[in-house]
Design goal:
There is one protein chain. This protein has 333 residues and is an alpha/beta fold. It has helices at residues 2-14, 16-21, 23-30, 40-45, 112-122, 136-139, 142-149, 226-237, 252-262, 267-281, 291-297, 306-312, 319-331, and strands at 51-53, 81-87, 91-97, 104-107, 128-130, 152-156, 169-171, 176-179, 182-188, 197-201, 206-210, 213-214, 217-218, 244-247, 289-290. A hairpin with a 2-residue loop joins strand 8 (176-179) and strand 9 (182-188). The radius of gyration is 19 Å and the shape is globular.
């Protein structure tokens, strides 16, 4: 307990402004309101690290914008740097860079133009493509980027043959991939597609989840079942609570409105909705999120919630049934 108090004091001293912005949510979580893990209040307040986000006006065909948010230590710590930028209408793409080796990967390839612009801006050489699943807005730039840069394409082995353009290495759960000296574990997360994977960087406390999980949402079940998707979500929520979750789309506003409709008495969710409304009004991204924040506010991570079950009329149902009904309602929201 003494060690936790010391850590909380340290965070409070260095990140007072961050904590103040989250006061309503932190107050509720500190009281234990609708949480499933101890210490969520402190973890929700922990700042997101080493992530650079493209500023408004950055080259892109996207119809939404992002704001500048960077860590001055990002280029000097020797740890993996993440550069996030918009593509297409509502996708995000992510460059992952190891300063110690110069290796650079892109997570999914929605659109070549913004990816090339980001590489040029950062002065990085593309060495790898990590695909999460086969949908066109995640693999559409594979062939052109591979032809231009000679990069290695890594994608899920569970997708059907030929669905990942230019794939050089097929991976599944238990495999490891690396950006230079920074290693990620591959997790199978079927549901959105049958072969979907996510890339978890344990030392960096980051996970790139494609369309399996969104801020306050999850992917549609195009190819998998509710049982599969719930198991996949649990793999992500089992990661350390302060893990940063990088989702592939800016769906947070619509997800938040749905979440409030099925958990209207969740005060943490109400507070988060207000924060999201302010951010999106300014064009500020709501990605990345954290495991802790999703456990507190994402209905697809909370099928055991008494409030959610009451709304759905499923107080005695199992978690899969609650998850499936929540997904069905979101599909028709």
């Amino acid at each position: 307990a003494r060690a936790q108090n010391l850590r909380a004091t340290h965070v409070g001293r260095r990140m007072r402004s961050v904590i103040q912005r989250h006061t309503p949510l932190l107050r509720l979580l500190a009281q234990g309101g609708q949480t499933r893990r101890p210490g969520l209040a402190r973890l929700v307040a922990t700042p997101l690290r080493r992530t650079l986000i493209a500023a408004p006006g950055a080259p892109s065909s996207s119809s939404f914008t992002a704001s500048a948010s960077s860590s001055p230590a990002a280029a000097t710590t020797g740890e993996m740097e993440v550069y996030q930028f918009p593509c297409l209408q509502d996708n995000y793409s992510f460059l992952l860079h190891d300063p110690s080796t110069g290796a650079t990967a892109v997570v999914d390839t929605p659109e070549v133009g913004p990816i090339e612009a980001a590489l040029k801006e950062k002065g990085w050489k593309l060495t790898h493509i990590f695909n999460t699943h086969h949908h066109w807005d995640h693999t559409g730039g594979n062939a052109e980027l591979k032809a231009r840069h000679g990069c290695e394409v890594i994608g899920p082995s569970g997708e059907r043959k030929g669905e990942i353009p230019g794939v050089d290495r097929a991976v599944c759960e238990g495999d490891e991939v690396a950006v230079g000296n920074v290693v990620a574990r591959v997790l199978d997360t079927p549901g959105h597609t049958v072969g979907h994977v996510v890339y978890h960087f344990p030392t960096e406390k980051k996970v790139f989840v494609g369309d399996t999980m969104f801020a306050m949402g999850c992917g549609r079940l195009f190819e998998g079942t509710a049982d599969q998707m719930w198991s996949s979500i649990q793999k992500i929520t089992a990661l350390p609570p302060d893990t940063e979750v990088f989702c592939a789309h800016e769906y947070t506003m619509s997800n938040a409105k749905f979440a409030v409709s099925v958990e209207p008495d969740n005060e943490a969710l109400q507070a988060r909705l207000r924060e999201v409304e302010v951010k999106r009004a300014k064009g500020v991204p709501t990605v990345p999120t954290t495991v802790a924040l999703e456990l507190a506010t994402n209905p697809f991570c909370r099928p055991d919630s008494v409030l959610l079950r009451r709304t759905l009329g499923l107080e005695g149902a199992d978690d899969v049934a609650v998850f499936a009904e929540t997904r069905r309602r979101k599909d028709n929201f």
